Amino acid sequence: MHGVVSRYCQASVFGALLVIFCCSSVFANEGLHNGWDKLLKKHVVASKEGYDTRVDYAGFIEDKASLQAYLAELAAVTQENYRGWSAHQQLAFLINAYNAHTVALVIEHYADIDSIRDIGGFFSSPWSKKIAPLLGEVRTLDEIEHDMIRSDKGFNEPRIHFAVNCASIGCPALRRQAYRGDVLETQLAEQTRLFLSDPSRNRFAEGKLLVSKIFNWYEDDFEQWRGLSGLRAFLAQYAQALSLNNADANRLRDGEIPITFLDYDWSLNEVR
Questions:
Q1: Which intervals hold domain DUF547 (predicted)?
Q2: Alpha carbon of 131 to those of 18, 75, 140, 165, 189: distances in Å?
Q3: Considering the domain boundaries, does residue 10 fall inside one?
Q4: Which parts of the chain have pLDDT scores under 70?
Q5: Has residue 15 been placed in a domain?
Q6: What tens digit of pLDDT does each residue of 26-64 get?
């Protein structure tokens, strides 16, 4: 009997420690992005309409130490930590890492550029530079977006295209808030709606749907997402944001409304 009680107590203690460990891991993850959240609220400015934002890169330069401290916190996360998080926590982590490292890259070259594409040489791009220590490796922005987020082993989440920010006017807004696992669904839904509501990037005019070049580059990502059958079905979900009535939304789904992809503005999304 004593042995049974002893084994029961050991199991109870182990169980309690496991719960504490798991809870600590979750809380550590959610608190991880507090520094980035403060920087975004301080240095990202929303437009009057609320569709997009501009970035005070000069302000980020003044707060470079705080940005570097946040990037160091991201770099300290291990593969074991990461694997213990929920899928939403993992995705929020990667989106924040992409955006924060993009800002860090821009401020490093800020005095000499008008576009993020000015960074790099003839045979390299800003997205192919090894700049981001993450999960035990130094990674490129392309690796974070395409290998870790979008690959077959990734998240099957096309709305990340409205969350990762390429420091350009044509890009969806850099959110004035860090992404967090516990509210990620709400954040992604809002980012998508805001981007599609912006008539400078997406609009219905003269019988055509004019949309961002993003939908051309990544059209495959919108195939069979949550039971939808492709880009047209995805866009039709946001009929109100695109100023489509119900009849036009149905015509869009049925292929009766042509889709045109707008030119992309690569100018830096800076506060002027």
A1: 83-196
A2: 35, 11, 6, 16, 29
A3: yes
A4: 1-28, 30, 122, 224, 226-227
A5: yes
A6: 445 769 999 999 999 999 999 888 889 999 999 999 999
Q: Are residues 121 and 71 in the same domain?
A: yes
Q: How many CA atoms lie within 13 A of 57 on its CB side?
A: 24
Cross-strand pairs, 55: 44, 270
Tell me: do 105 and 18 sit in the same domain: no
Buried b / exposed e along 92-122 (16+ C-beta atoms within 10 A): bbbbbbbbbbbbbbbbeebeebebbbebeee
Give the number of domains in the chain: 2
For residue 230, the 8-state DSSP code is: S
Distances (CA, A) of 241 to 53, 119, 123, 129, 256: 18, 34, 40, 36, 19
Amino acid at 4: V
For residues 199 and 125, state if they share a domain: yes
* Domain of 19, in residue numbers: 1-29
Residues 171 and 188 in one domain: yes
Show the CA angle centred on residue 159, arms to residues 250 and 141, nearest 5°: 145
